[in-house]
Amino acid sequence: MEITLKINGVEKKLNVEPRTLLVHAIRDAGLTGTHIGCDSSSCGVCTVVLDGKTAVKSCTMFAVMAEGHEITTIEGMAQGGKLHPLQQAFYDQHGLQCGYCTPGMIMSAHVLLQHNPNPTEEEIRFGLSGNLCRCTGYQNIVKAVQQAAQMLQQPAGAAADD
Ligand code: FES
Ligand code: FES
After folding, report:
1. Share of the chain above pLDDT 90, in %
2. Scanning 17, 38, 73, 141, which has its CA 20 to 30 A from the CA of 105?
3. Which residues contact 114 (CB under 8 A, 6 or more apart)?
């Protein structure tokens, strides 16, 4: 069946089976930054954002269910050739090693910071508890989210002067 998914502001027509998972449809659309780890909702590497405000593990929903929703993936985070503050902070704080978990971590953190712009360390750890990292021990990931929270709270002019 043919469906249309709006991913990062771009409409993509895809041929899928009714049972096709959203993560597979996104990757088949050429956006391979969304990873597949467990395919069973445990690891969080497939996390995307629906309608700008809800983090969803894209292996937990069928592609057909995403029609009519705005989907944001890691490829939609950088704007105008400039990394999103979360991407910059993961880089600055060494929040990634192999990077396999990083897109999902960033999408979950993105939603967390929208709902709670100044989270405590405990709130960050809780907010990311559905995302597993096998490399970093999480400390630098937490630091990255703390840095991004600070960057996002700076006035726009101050951020541009960095
Ligand atoms: S692949 Fe979706 S949670 Fe692991
Ligand atoms: S950086 Fe390797 S799994 Fe997290």
Report:
1. 94
2. 17
3. 52, 53
